[in-house]
Write a structure and sequence with these properties.
It is a single chain. It contains five helices and two strands, in the order ααββααα. It is about 40% helix and about 5% strand.
Length: about 110
């Protein structure tokens, strides 16, 4: 985790810290958490507050429900900076699925 992880890119940028601190983002993130039952959509973990993850990387225009998913910290870290797995998360959001790790691997192989 953190700086010891080979994927570490120095932590959240100042721009990200400002964006996630805005009231409109906080409201949207809470709406997504509520939609997702305040649980990780992959494992069902329900500790609050959970991160809201951009399925496709944030570009300034894609803060929309179909591009956002509630994930536990572990799964958020697993999917961060891995756009090749975005289709799996998109499938979960589209189908309103709540899946376990085994099912996730099966979905990844068919989608």
């Amino acid at each position: 985790r953190g700086a010891n992880n080979p994927n570490w890119k120095g932590g959240a940028t100042d721009r990200t810290k400002i964006r996630v601190g805005r009231a409109d983002w906080r409201r949207l993130a809470e709406r997504i958490r509520k939609r997702d039952g305040h649980r990780c959509r992959i494992c069902g973990w329900g500790s609050l507050p959970l991160p809201v993850h951009h399925i496709r990387p944030h570009n300034g225009y894609n803060d929309i429900g179909r591009n956002l998913i509630t994930l536990c910290t572990s799964h958020h870290n697993s999917f961060e900076n891995k756009p090749e797995l975005a289709h799996v998360l998109e499938h979960i959001v589209r189908s309103d699925m709540r899946v376990g790790a085994e099912e996730l691997l099966e979905i990844a192989s068919r989608v």
